[in-house]
Amino acid sequence: MPAVGSLSYSVRRRLVLLLCLLLHLNPSLSYSLKSCTIDYSKDALAEVIIDCSQRKLVIIPEDIPRDARSVNLYNNQIEQINNKDFSGFSKLKDLRLDCNHIAHVDDGSFIHAVSLKELYMSYNRLTKLTANLFQGLSNLTLLDLSSNSIQFIHNSAFQFLSSLQTVLLDSNMLQQVADIQPILQLPRIQNLSIKANLFPSFQTKDLPLNKPSGLKVLDVSESNFEKFSITTQIFPHLEMIDLSRFDQSEAMQWDIPDKTLLKNITQLILSHTFIPFDNIQNILQNLDSLRHLRLNYMERWINKGLLATVCKIPTLKSLDLYFNHVANISAKLETCSQLRELDLSTTHTTELSKGSLRLMKQLQSLTLATNLITKVPDDIRSLYSLEILDLGDNIISELVCEDFKNTTRLTELYLNTNRIAKLDGCVFENLNDLKILDISDNLLWTFGGAFNIGPQKLEYLDLSKNFILILKRGDFQGLGSVKHLDLVTNRIGRVKRRAFDGLNNLTTLSVSLPLEYENHFRELPHLENLTIYFNTDGGFRTLQSQASYHEASFHLKSLKIFKIICTGYHYGFPLDVPEEFFQAMKHLEDFTAENVYISAPDPQTFQFNFRLKSLKISQTDLSDLNPELFQPIPNLQALDLSETRLQSLDFLAQANLPALRQLKLSGNEITVINETVFQSLPALTYLDLDNNPFTCDCSNAGFIQWVMNNKQTQVVNGHQYTCSFPAAEQGNKLLDFDIQSCWMDVSFLCFISSTCLVVLTLLASFIYHFLRWQLAYGFYLFLAFVYDNRKRKKGAPHHYDAFISYNVHDEDWVYREMLPVLEGEQGWRLCLHHRDFQPGKAIIENITDAIYGSRKTICVISRRYLQSEWCSREIQMASFRLFDEQKDVLILLFLEEIPAQQLSPYYRMRKLVKKRTYLSWPQDGQHAGVFWQNVRRALETGDTVADNTDLLTGPAGC
User: Fold this and answer.
1) DSSP 8-state symbol, 489
2) pLDDT tens across 386-419, in order?
3) Cα separations (Å) of 745 from 7, 14, 23, 740, 742?
4) Torsion angles phi and psi, residue 706, rounded to 5
5) What is the C-alpha separation between 875 and 850, in angstroms, rounded?
6) DSSP code for 178
7) Is the confidence at residue 79, as pLDDT, over 50?
8) Nearest to 697 by CA among 732, 729, 720
9) Rounded Cα gap, residues 435 and 462, in angstroms
10) Per residue in 155-167, pLDDT tens?
């Protein structure tokens, strides 16, 4: 016998299905989007951000929430935008439609996106911008239409974009500068990029504007202009021009006769730009306000002495010369004393010419990255004002004490990706203002006392990707101001006690440690963020004692974020975590353990960490997870148990996690999920179950329905989950499984079917036993009704005076007594079935034709007549004609005395006999003449029935 609980649950599920059918629940209203995901931040009130990128979409998904703030549809296969695609998106602020196949946009498609500020539609197939394309976008500030095939812009295309500030029309097919006139007239336009179009030239005389434009940045790079001409006052606020080109086959003519037309230009970019040398000299000499100049791939003019002209620009403060392969380029800058920023990266520089930077007393930033410099240039020692120095990605192998002796104002120093093997104690001793130092990705194996006494103000130190073998006391003694330290490397083999002495204000530490380390973090009282990478070198390591781990963690009282990441083969960390390990971490909010535990942590692990909000345990076997592990941390908001061999989610029902919002369980062994588990997680909004071997059968029917119908929890990529079991469903989508058959199980259907069959059998038996004659009579009445209507429509005349209805056993009497009198003596035309029925026609049709083709019907009644099926049908049809037409058409002639009680089974006959008189052969047979005379009178009676006429035998008294 099935359990009562099981039966009631089955009934509840059926009722739920019935309710869904009645309410016509629409799966598209699901919170688990079919083709998108919802991005969440830690802020519960954050606006909705939808990511639908790279999903091979061909249309805009209908299930995107209408309250979305940002929608990313980047890199799909959408071909057109319809005017209803963004209906209701009144809160949308950012929309990415770039990298699609959009060739058409309906007018007014964005009319409901009244809050939209940024619209990206680059890398599509648009060919024109129509008048009402951007209707409704009055708050749009950025429009990116680059890399389309736009050839035509309607004069009114930008009329609705009153707040537009930035327009990108790069790499299109515009052929006339006049096409951009509607953009330049926008009241708030500041930035315009029209690079890589088909303009033969750019001349302001082709732009008859009603008033000057507010444009500040103009990018016309990658354009093969024959002429760049500004001859009218239409750009009084222009600050930056980009004239970079890739084709130097033809020179471009610069035509700006009045230098006051560019009086506000502060930045000029020339890259691959082929302008005659005299012309470009003239340009630079006339830019009185130029502050930032970029000359990339301009070796031809630099070798001709262009930098001599550049250095004479009194207002120039920033000079970018990267991507120029010029020998001894620094020597050409000796007179650039006014510079504050100089970028010489990627110039193939091996060394700076002695004295080349000597006059740059105001230089604050120098970039020499990605060159072939072997040592710190000597000229740097004379740059007393230098604040930022980038020597990264060179081949410097050694630092000496004099390298930074005079650059005492340095705040940022980048020495990353070089070949520095050791440091001397005096290298950084004069860098009293240094805040950022990056020496990552070098060959360092010792610090050499470089950090014993400073730098005193250093806050950020990156020593990752080096070859440090040992960390010992005193290595960081002078770094009292450092807040962020990165020591991630796979070479550290030993960490001694008090190795971090001096780092009193350290808040963030990322470090690689061996499994046997002596340090107890006693010297890091303010540490808030700790990431430890355990180095196992792929081999066996013995763990230090549990007591040592407890002592190491005891001093981490300020810790908020703790991450432990272990690579390679190991025996767990530790094999049995003592209850006291996290005892001092009262403020811990985020804990991550990747490839750390061998089995599930002890249930008492987090008993002292009631503030824990985020927990991640991955690459671990949690098949024996005890739900009591979560009891002490009811404030947990994010839980990640990916790749932990979980087979069931039942532990969540007992875990007591009322505040949990995000749950990640990807890469596990979960096959079946009971949807009731999520009832214990009332705040859950994000669920990731990707890469689990789901079973697609009725055991997951409840979970499938929950995924499709719940309005709170987003099941990330839920519509992409695939079936692993059974074999017949393998590869199919989980949510495509038909769950309706699950609610109505086979046993229930069999019960319903058998019940209906039994009821139908009982009903048929009852009808046959009690109502078969009434049904038969009704059937023949119906046939007679149909025939009578047909005859009326045709108006067919009567062929016979009377149809004789008799039983075959009474045939002798009919031929011997009746026919000689009625046909022979009285001359009536009679219809007899054996003589006048048409051969081949259905019997019932012959009977109907005979009755309705005769004026009267004479029923010769005997006991055998009453028992005959065909006789019964004949009298039933005749009686219907009697009462339907209200005509005297029926004559009853009894051959035998039949008591009334014997007529009871033939209810219609008894009813007729009781109501009307009839002819009786046994009574009148002794007076045959009188009998046949009465029959004649009955036949002679007209069709009209008088009030005093007997329908059966004629007038009363006969």
Assistant:
1) -
2) 999 999 999 999 999 999 999 999 999 999 999 9
3) 12, 10, 22, 9, 6
4) -65, -45
5) 12
6) G
7) yes
8) 729
9) 12
10) 999 999 999 999 9
Which is nearest to 517 in space by CA: 501, 538, 532, 537? 532
Query: What single letter denotes the amino acid at residue 13?
Result: R
**Tokens standing for 600?**
């599930």
Backbone angles phi, psi at 435, to 5 degrees: -115, -30
pLDDT band at 38 (very low <50, low <70, confident <90, very high): confident
Strands (E) across 647-725 are located at 662-664, 686-688, 694-695, 714-715, 723-725
Half-sphere exposure of 554 (CA within 13 A, CB side): 12
pTM of the model: 0.75
Which residues fall within 8 angstroms of residue 21, CB to CB, at 6 or more apart? Answer: none
Q: Which amino acid is at 172?
A: N
Does residue 460 come out as left (phi exceeding 0), alpha (psi in the -120 to 50 range) or beta?
Answer: beta
C-alpha–C-alpha distance, residues 43 and 712, integer Å: 16
Average pLDDT, integer, range 30-59: 78
Give Dmax over CA atoms of the chain in angstroms: 164
**Reduced DSSP (H G I as helix, E B as strand, rest coil) percent helix, strand, coil of the chain, to 5:** 25, 15, 55
Measured distance CA(426)–CA(448) in Å, rounded: 9
Radius of gyration of the chain (CA): 51
Question: Can you tell me the distance from the alpha carbon of 599 to that of 576, in angstroms, rounded to the nearest whole number?
Answer: 9
Q: How far is CA 887 from the centre of its chain?
A: 79
Looking up tokens 């981490």 gives 556
Residue whose entry in the numeric block shows the structure tokens 């340090």: 519
DSSP letters spanning 614-641:
EEEEESS--TT--GGGGTT-TT--EEE-
Cα distance between residue 589 and residue 391, in whole Å: 39
Place of tokens 């990916």: 642
Amino acid letter, 837: F
What one-character DSSP code corresponds to residue 901?
G
Determine which helix (DSSP H) or strand (DSSP E) holds 803, and give its type and residue range.
Answer: strand 800-805
The domain spans of the chain are 798-955
Measured from the Cβ of residue 305, the count of other Cβ atoms closer than 10 Å reads 12
> For the chain, first and last CA: distance in Å?
79
> Structure tokens of 515?
């499994």
Tell me the residue type at 206.
D
Question: Which tokens in the block code for residue 683?
Answer: 């705040």
For residue 656, the one-letter residue type is N
Return d(Cα 687, Cα 661) in angstroms, integer.
8
In the CATH scheme, what is the homologous superfamily, with its name and number, of domain 798-955?
A: Toll/interleukin-1 receptor homology (TIR) domain (3.40.50.10140)
The answer to whether 609 touches 633, Cβ cutoff 8 Å, is: yes
* Cα-based torsion angle of the residue sequence 349, 354, 358, 363 in order, rounded to the nearest 10 degrees: 20
